[in-house]
Design a protein that fits this description.
By secondary structure, the chain is an alpha+beta fold. It folds into three domains: 20-77, no CATH class; 80-194, Nuclear Transport Factor 2, Chain: A (Roll), CATH 3.10.450.50; 202-278, no CATH class. It contains six helices and 13 strands. The strands form four sheets. Strands 7, 8, 9, 10, 11, 12 and 13 form a seven-stranded mixed sheet that branches. A two-stranded antiparallel ribbon has the order 1-2. Strands 3-4 form a two-stranded antiparallel ribbon. Strand 12 and strand 13 form a beta hairpin. The radius of gyration is 29 Å and the shape is flat. The termini are far apart. Residues 1-59 and 63-70 have low confidence and may be disordered.
Length: 282
């Protein structure tokens, strides 16, 4: 009986930052090296006429940093989850200068609440600055779970809190893709999905069923619409402008004017109440 044993392995060269603290305060940085890779997969296959063993190894770039004591050094790998946690910590701390260091120059940040993604560090930072300003002093991101994938990717569940209490309808999940630039792991792509305050429930399934039935009955029209989604929005906009706008605009204008009048009336009543309280408090 003949037996053949085949070994195959794949490893990636690692860049390590070696930092040692000596008694005289000497610091040594950026010493490239290689480390052994963690075995990710080890499978064996036994056949009738032979044995085949295959191993696949992968590893991620790591950094050597000093541990709690000055006499030992521990290995800390580059981690997308650590980068994302630091990213949200900067948002909670309102530290825009540090936050910018985690954004790559060609970053693409897609928030599904906006019609189009933010391209480049400048647009992304403008959006994040508006976000930090809108959160005020007491609203914070609370990170629930972080799941790390391959190639510096990570997914995260989060919600907003006001002084430690969860804000309703603020749950969300985000997906990030990072890239290693020099010795820093930066956010290159992001997609954010936020919980909708509107809960239509079974209506969505009914609507989906009707749409899929129409799509199956008219496959060519469906394919054309999917290839040209802007045609639908253009058609609806024109239909609204021609048929609905002449009637809707006056109603909306009257509705807005009514609420403006109510707001001014409430403001006047509030000022009168404050004036009366000041008189009686003397």
């Amino acid at each position: 009986m003949s037996a053949s044993i085949n070994f195959s392995g794949q490893a990636q060269t690692q860049r390590l930052c070696f930092r040692a603290l000596g008694g005289n305060g000497i610091v040594l940085n950026s010493l490239p090296s290689k480390i052994s890779c963690q075995l990710m997969q080890n499978t064996s296959k036994i056949e009738h006429h032979g044995i085949s063993i295959r191993s696949l190894a992968k590893c991620k770039p790591s950094t050597l940093v000093p541990s709690a004591s000055d006499d030992s050094i521990e290995i800390v790998p580059f981690s997308a989850s650590n980068t994302i946690r630091e990213f949200y910590a900067c948002i909670n701390e309102k530290n825009l200068e540090r936050l910018e260091t985690y954004i790559s120059d060609d970053c693409c940040f897609e928030d599904c609440s906006f019609p189009k993604p933010f391209q480049g560090k400048k647009e992304v930072m403008q959006f994040l600055e508006q976000l930090v300003t809108s959160m005020g002093q007491n609203v914070k991101f609370s990170v629930e779970q972080v799941c790390e994938g391959d190639e510096f990717t990570a997914g995260i569940n989060w919600h907003l809190e006001w002084k430690g209490k969860q804000v309703p309808f603020t749950r969300g999940c985000s997906f990030y893709e990072c890239s290693l630039e020099g010795e820093t792991l930066l956010i290159k792509k992001a997609r954010v999905v936020i919980e909708s305050p509107i809960k239509p429930g079974g209506i969505v399934l009914t609507l989906l069923k009707n749409l899929t039935s129409l799509s199956d009955d008219f496959p060519k029209a469906t394919e054309w619409l999917l290839n040209s989604p802007h045609v639908i929005s253009t058609f609806l906009l024109k239909a609204y402008t021609i048929f609905l706008a002449p009637f809707v605009r006056p109603i909306l204008a009257g509705y807005i004017n009514m609420w403006n009048f109510i707001a001014r009336l409430l403001g006047l009543a509030f000022n009168i109440l404050i004036y009366i309280l000041k008189i009686f408090s003397k």
